[in-house]
Amino acid sequence: MRQKLTTTNQSVGKVLQIIEIMSQNRGAMKLQDISVKSGLPVSTALRMVNTLLSYGYVRQDPVTLRYALTLKFAQLGSLVSSQFRITDIMRPYLIELSDKSGEAVCYAADQDMELIYMDVIDGPDGILKVMQRIGKRAPLHCTGIGKIMLLNYSQKELRHFVSAKGLLSYTPKTIVTKETLQRELEKVRRAGYAMDDEECELGARCVAAGIKDYTGRYIGGISVSGPISRLTLERTEILKGAVMDAAKKISEALAYQEETE
Q1: Could you tell me which of 221, 150, 141, 206 has the C-alpha nearest to residue 180?
Q2: CATH class assigned to 86-253
């Protein structure tokens, strides 16, 4: 929900509303449809659309007279994205989550069918500092974030992953069959979070949630990790909400919008 500001420009707000409506529509739009969806009179909608048209942000089909956004927005997006790093956006949320949980928090992503740690906030005792180090790699099939990353894979890609990387056993709890992995991924998909319950390293447990960008694809994930003596299953159940909430906020900061019916 947008915060109310003390002073706003209504015309700018209407233009932004129309841009959002047109960006979410599949294909060009009739002026009447823009008017209906925005709740603006046709004359007002036309004035706003004509402004966008004059600045090159909207084009009009000469035959159908329908309007569509131009790639000028993609150009702006590219310029904006070049001005920041994703880790810079995430770090405040990671620090907050670490403070809230009292445990190590990390951000990792899929690279060449392996998990690579991009940022780490150490826990109070640094127990997991060696295991989770920026630039360190880990397997996908037995880490919380790794399981999230595998949700991006099609069945064909998943078969290739299993064939190329294998489901190596790291502990007695590691998933080592494709069938078990598929069941686990379906469970993760339904729950919205993933766990590593001593599957990668004995004595360590983590709960993870995925980060999505504006395309709706998982670009990485964040996790809270700790020794099983502190991160008990009961405590993990409590912390999963905080992890999912932080992941949702980061996704929104990266322009992800959850689909609504």
Answers
A1: 141
A2: alpha beta
